[in-house]
Amino acid sequence: MPANRPSSADQTFAARHVGVIGRDRERALAELGADSLDELIELAAPADILTPVTAPSLPPAADEASVRAELARLAGRNRVTHALIGQGFHGTLTPAVIRRNVFENPSWYTAYTPYQPEISQGRLEALITFQQMVEDLTGLPVANSSLLDEASAAAEGMLLARRASRARTSRFIVGRALLPQVRAVAAGRAAALDLELVEADLTDPASWRPEVEQGCFGLLAAYPDAEGRVWDPREVFEAVHEAGGICVAECDILALAMLTPPGELGADVAVGTTQRFGVPIGYGGPHAGYMAVRKGLERQIPGRLVGMSRDADGVPAYRLALQTREQHIRRDRATSNICTAQVLLAVMAAMYAVWHGPEGIRRIAQQVHDRTVALAEALGAAGLDPAEGPFFDTLRIRLPGRAEEIWLRARQAGYTLALLDADTVGLSLDETVTAEDVTALAGLIGGRHTDAGAGADAAWEWPGALIRTSDFLTHPVFTSYRSETSFMRYLKRLADRDYGLDRGMIPLGSCTMKLNAAVEMEPVSWPEFADLHPFAPADDAAGTLQLIDDLETWLAELTGYDTVSLQPNAGSQGEYAGLLAIRGYQHSRGEDQRRVCLVPSSAHGTNAASAALAGLRVVVVGSDDQGNIDLADLAAKIEANADQLAAIMLTYPSTHGVYEAKVRRVCQMVHDAGGQVYIDGANLNALLGVARPGEIGGDVSHLNLHKTFAIPHGGGGPGVGPVAVKAHLAPFLPGHPQSPRHDHVNTRGGSLEHGSAPVASAPYGSASVLPISWAYIRLMGVDGLREATGQAVLNANYVARRLQSQIPVLYTGANGLVAHECILDLRPLTHRTGISVDDVAKRLIDYGFHAPTMSFPVAGTLMVEPTESEDLAELDRFCDAMGAIVAEADRVAEGAWPADDNPLVNSPHPAYRLMADDWQHPYSRKVAAYPGVAASAGRDEESGLHMNPVTRIQAKYWPPVGRIDNAFGDRHLVCSCPPPEAFEEV
């Protein structure tokens, strides 16, 4: 047994989660002059923030078998019926090959956002396939690579219309027949920005025409609408265009396989969700929203956009395009605050389209529609009126005085319908509905069965102008992988082109790429969690709701707040919800004039963008020479804004990587001026178990479950960003019009109601991934969480100490220590050698590493966060690689290699370049591909193989492309799948 590992009796989950233990931990601590993790924290952090953290409701840490059994008991309390509620959430069949090879595959779910495109080519190819799928189905030429969900995508469409419209008005028209959650989220966004929403019946010109004539900057229309109607929006679109407005169509992605696409009807923007393309309902999420736009709006599109470019050798390559590469760096000038999307779910939806192809997608849509027609005919024959006109998959059935009776009868038979009112039930069919289900439903509701596929009643036939005639999914990718063998190999090829945590360390500052343990991930696929509809009766979700109660309680207790909302489905949405809570509270006190948000330059990157979207004016507070908030500048900014101060947004520890000593003083200064304190939870993994932001002075914090609490990043999503607040802000947390309940945990006893506008489609956001964080906390216990925090701080300081003689650390705190991350200042190296931060980042790929965060928050630096999960050997390998890169840069400065032709500026080195017959570089292929081997390789006595602690010879990661030319891609924007001939000369 290795000496640095504990005995089997001590193999707790925490010991498996934390990478450096035993003798290795002792050695690392000795490097820093500390005897224990607790002592290290005391040396690094201000004494006045440290407090014994307890969570009375959280039991002691449990082993994996016990936690799995507890989760199984919770899952067993859920009742999964055949939910035909619809309303934006539909049953779907996830192909097993996608579930196993994507959804449950760490190569896909542990990757990071593709900011380093050279090592993200597989994911980027899958995302451009998603974009192509959306473009084809919507009939619009540019689509982004996903948004957070349907409702927020619709709200983003409204904001895009505001930016792009030439109309000088704040009025925006929304269709009366929108999904309730879409209307509610849009209304919340509009209120924050003082926009006026105007409702109209878009099927009736007498309703909408006067509103358009009064002026509007745009319109949001559902197609088909929430009542299930298929209708022609061309007339209203033309009128809005004449008024200078932008037309946004919210579309059912499956219906578009049969309906004339919105781009052919005159829509400028199409939004919606791709959930019914193979992504489980999961009690509301995560699901990939989508947005497509007409030509001319591509630079206005929010979120991420994948584009085509070329590498240094002219090889076609993918990358994030335009401003979406580093949207958060634009701060308050960003077009969106979204810094994560739903990449994993977008990949699943794209692969669903690849697996089924155009014929399969059309067949599924046709089957859903035919069975809906068959049910409608059966109900019509029984004297019921199931629809007012043409429909796709949704019926509304009038049952005067009998709706609840029929609803209960269906429940007893295992079906859940939508109980719309005392006289009306609704139902939406999906691909899981069989012909036998149609027979059963016809009998339950009161009609008689007719064969699925029978001809429609003339009143239900679609107008010819709304029947799709254009082709879709014509690119070869959608027709090339019909056998499971070929499709499995395609997915494997894509995964092999990427770099995830299953390959090695991803030391990204402020992003916390830690272990996502298999035992935590496993329950996400269980049907009891995955197949729940978010609007099902509360009794059906008893187990999930108990899990939610537990998680809300534990998170509130661990952070020192009174209540938590789990609804925000990304960290950016948690920021936004927290700021809206502040605004709602101040409005209730008659303080609407408070519109200024102070944002320190050391704050997390999305803070300023979130503040702008919440209707606040951003004022930046400077930092002093040590990277702390400049108290004199803070005092001046507070005085200058006096009674207009709404809040300050702190990140603690700061994005500069230090525990600021005067944080309590900062909070007090803002409170004394009547403002609220928002403490960003992006760096909570440096506080958890040792300090509580709610006790430091915070009124509100958002927490990143995809960082601190082990939900994987999924290649750029899913994320979950709960918001925790003190009791006075609780009423202003997001509510939801279809929530199964409105009471939430109050750690002071009793319960609290959250009643503000929702920020997500579902009441509990991305609920299907919450078992991951529940399991993580339950496995670790308070003591394990405290140990993880200490180890994260130890690992960051170990890296900083090892590298300090070669690369200075830009900011340090007490005793020369950092928090859980450190900023390596490469500017002196660049000044001395000409080697840039980009060169260092790309050369790290040759050494087998994902680069740290580049040039944020300070240009020309690398922000490194090793996390608590990496072992000492991997930390040493990273430090050795950085040291070797410095030595290579010095060789350039010495003239051994030319400034324009050396291993750094030419990095990374793909295999095809190394295999070229003509090698004209002044360094060898060996130096290019296996850096450091000649200097440090030795021979393993047992195997006889050469081993190298820096570059893993036998596990070499080969980048699929060389350095990508982003500028070329932006000048020649291509955001759809390139034709096969684009690769013929490679």
CATH topology of the domain at 79-506 and 958-986: Aspartate Aminotransferase, domain 2
Number of helices: 32
List the strand order in the largest sheet.
2-8-7-6-5-3-4
Supply the CATH class of the domain at 79-506 and 958-986: Alpha Beta
Spans of at least 5 consecutive residues whose pLDDT stays below 50 are: 1-9, 934-948
Overall mean pLDDT stands at: 93
The CATH superfamily of the domain at 79-506 and 958-986 is Type I PLP-dependent aspartate aminotransferase-like (Major domain)
Structural class: alpha/beta
| Strand percent estimate | 5-15%
CATH architecture of the domain at 79-506 and 958-986: 3-Layer(aba) Sandwich
Largest sheet: 7 strands, mixed
Label the overall shape.
globular
Radius of gyration: 28 Å
How would you characterize this protein structure?
By secondary structure, the protein is α/β, with parallel strands linked by helices. It has a domain at 79-506 and 958-986: Type I PLP-dependent aspartate aminotransferase-like (Major domain) (Aspartate Aminotransferase, domain 2), CATH 3.40.640. Helix content is 36%, strand content 11%. The chain has 32 helices and 28 strands. The strands form nine sheets. A seven-stranded mixed beta sheet has the order 2-8-7-6-5-3-4, sandwiched between helices. A hairpin with a 5-residue loop joins strand 9 (306-310) and strand 10. Helix 5 (96-103) runs antiparallel to helix 13, helix 19 (542-559) runs parallel beside helix 25 (770-803) and helix 25 (770-803) packs across helix 28 (872-894). The longest helix is centred in the middle third of the chain and has 39 residues, at 343-381. The protein starts with 12 loop residues before the first helix and ends in a 15-residue tail after the last helix. Residues 1-9 and 934-948 have low confidence and may be disordered. GO terms for molecular function: glycine binding; glycine dehydrogenase (decarboxylating) activity; pyridoxal phosphate binding. The glycine cleavage system is composed of four proteins: P, T, L and H. Pfam families: GcvP2_C (PF21478), GDC-P (PF02347).
